[in-house]
Amino acid sequence: MIPYIVAILVPLIITLLYQKTKNAKKRGVPVDVGGEPGYAIRNAQFPTLLETAWEGVSTLAQLFEMACKKHEHKCLLGTRTLISKDTEVSADGRSFEKLHLGEYEWLTYGQVFEKVCNFASGLAHLGLRSEERVAIFADTRAEWFISLQGCFRRNVPVVTIYASLGEEALCYSLNETEVTAVICGAKELKKLAEVSGQLETVKYIICMDDETPSSASSVAQSGRWRVVSVADVEKLGRENPVDGALPLSEDVAVIMYTSGSTGLPKGVMMTHGNVLAVVSSVRTIVTGLEDKDVYLAYLPLAHILEIVAENVVAGAGSAIGYGTPMTLTDTSNKIKRGTKGDATVLRPTVMAAVPAILDRVRDGVQKKVDAKGGLTKKLFDFAYARRISAINGSWFGAGGIELLLWNFLVFRKVRAVLGGRIRFLLSGGAPLSGDTQRFINVCLGAPICQGYGLTETCAGGTFSEFDDPSVGRVGNPVPCSYIKLIDWPEGGYLISNSPMPRGEIVIGGPNVTLGYFKNEAKTKEEFKVDERGMRWFYTGDIGQFHADGCLEIIDRKKDIVKLQHGEYISLGKVEAALVVSPYVENIMLHADPFHSYCVALVVAARPALEEWASKKGIAFTDFAELCEKEETIKELQASLLKAAKAARLEKLEIPTKIKLLSDPWTPETGLVTAALKLKREAVRNAFFEELSKLYES
C-alpha cells in the first residue's frame, strides 16, 4: 500500500512545488521614475532601458547592412510565382478571382543588399535628397521591404500609408508630408491616378509592377508625374552608383499614418533609434530565433508591428516568405480549389497575427470538428481537455508520450493548416481573448506571446514570455520600456485599488516617438517629457498590474459611456465578451447618456447562421433576408445572452435590442482599420438611422 501512496503523492508534491516556483517568478519589478506620480514597472531582467542589442548598431540601416554581410548567401526574401488567375462564379452570381500560385522563389541576403544599394543610388540619380520624403503605398511584398531599406540608405524618411486607406485620408497624408515620390503597386497606382489633381507635391511614381495602368500613363503624359518602375530605378542606380548617406539614430526613419478609429489619420514620427529599441527588445525576448527560422509575412508593412517583425527576422539571419491574408491557407478566399495556400508551401516556423485572424482560425477549426461530430468530436474534446490540464499544471494532464500521441492523432491536422512547423506566434494590434489564446496554443502546440504597444511607441510596451502559461494578459514590460499606471479618478481606476493597482497606462522609454507630424497641439496633449528627460506617451488605455509584474488591459477611457442613471458601460469590454458567439462576425455596442440601456449592431457570421437556418428548416432567398427574420434575431439575442452570462456581464451591459447586418465590415468599407479594429465613429455615422430606430422601437 505504501508504494502506491508514494507513487501518487510524489508527482503531486513535485507538481505543487513546480507551480509555486512558476507562479513566484517576477517578470516585472517596481522602478523609480520621474514624471506624473504613479506605479511604474520595468522588465525584471533589465535594470536599465535597452536601446540596441547589437554593438555599434544605432540605426535600422546599420542593422540591415550588418545582417546582409554576415548572412550573404542565405535566403532572405521569398515570393510565390503566379501560375494562373481564374474567375469563379458563385450560385448567387457573384464573381471571385482565384489564384493558382507556385513555389517560393528566393533572393539571398547578398542579392537583396545589392538591390537595396542600387535602389538607393537610383533615388539619388532621380534627384531625391535626404530632406525630401517618399511614401510607400502598397500591399506587403518583397519590393516594399527593399524600397524601405533603400530609402534608409539615403536617409530619406518614409511615409507609410495603408493600401486600404480611403481617398480623402490618402490625399491628406501625401499633401501634409509634401512627398516628392510615391512607391506603389499597379493597383494603388490606379487610385493615385484618380486623385492626381489633388496631389500637390508628387513628382515621381515608382511602380513595383512592370506594367502600369493606362490611367497613370495619361497622367504621366500630361507632365504632372514621371512614372518609372522599381526595376528602372535599380537599373539607374546600378549604372550610376553612389555611396550611401546613412542616417543617425535621431533621424526620422518613418512617418506612419495610422488608419485611426476617428477622424483623419495622424502621422507618427519615428526615429531610427525609436524603432531599433523595439527591434532589439523583441530580438532579446524571442530566444532561439536563428537562421533556420522561416517567417510568413502577410500583415500590412504600413503597420509598425510588421516593420518591427521583419527587421527582427532579418537581423537574426532568418528567411521571410511573403503571402497575403486572402491566400494564407488552402481554403483562403483567393486560393484556387485544389491548390495550396502560402502556409502549406512555405511551412513557416514563426508568424505574427492580429486577434481577428486567430479568431477565424479558431472558429474554422471548431466548425470543422463540430460538423464531423461523433467519435471525431469526442476524441478532439477529450484530447483538448487533457492538454488544458497539462498547461494548467494538473498532474493528471497529458504530457510526455501521451502528448505525442494526441499531437499525432488529433492536433497534427490542425497544425497542417499553418504548415505544421509553427513554433512561435506573436499576437498584437488588439487584445486577444483568453479562449482563443488557449485554443491556438493547444492546437498548434506553440506559445502565443501576446504583446501590447501602439504606433506612438513603435509597437513596444509589454510582451508575454515563453514560459508564461497565463491568458488574458499582455505580459511584462519589454526591455526598452517602463510601464506606469496613473490614477483616473473619474473612472474609479486608482493605483491604490485592491488587490491590484489600476490606472491609465503611460509608456516611457527610447521607443516613445517624437509625436505627430505638423500637429504640435496633439503632440503636447499625449506626449510628456519629465524632469529627467524621459519621454512618456499617455495611451488612454486602462490596465492593472498582477503580482508578478505583468499587465492586463481592462478598459479604455474613450470606450466608457455613462448611461441615463449614472451607470458606466465599457463598450470594448462588452464587445469582447459578446463576439465569442458563433453567430457573430463583428459587433458594435452603442450607448448614450439619454437612455438607460444599450443596443448593438451585429454583423452576422454567415456560415454558422445559414447552417442554423438549414437545421431549423427556415426558407430564405438570400442572406440579407435571413438576417431580417424575427426568428433569426431571437436566436442571435439568445446566443448573445449566453455569451454575456459566461462573461458575467451585468444586466445593463447586455444590449436590449440589436440590428442584424448581412454585409461584413472590412478595411475597404472604411468601418474597420487595416488591423481590423472597429472605427466606432465611422460605424455610428454609417448606421445612424438603424441605431435611431433601435432606440425608437
TrEMBL record:
Native source organism of the sequence: Populus tomentosa
Family annotation (InterPro entries): AMP-binding_CS (IPR020845), AMP-dep_synth/lig_dom (IPR000873), ANL_N_sf (IPR042099)
Which residue intervals define the domain AMP-dependent synthetase/ligase in the entry? 97-517
Give one GO molecular function term: long-chain fatty acid-CoA ligase activity
Q: Name one GO cellular component term.
A: membrane
Q: What is this protein called?
A: AMP-dependent synthetase/ligase domain-containing protein
The answer to whether keyword Nucleotide-binding applies is: yes
Q: Does the keyword Signal apply?
A: yes
What is catalyzed by this enzyme? a long-chain fatty acid + ATP + CoA = a long-chain fatty acyl-CoA + AMP + diphosphate
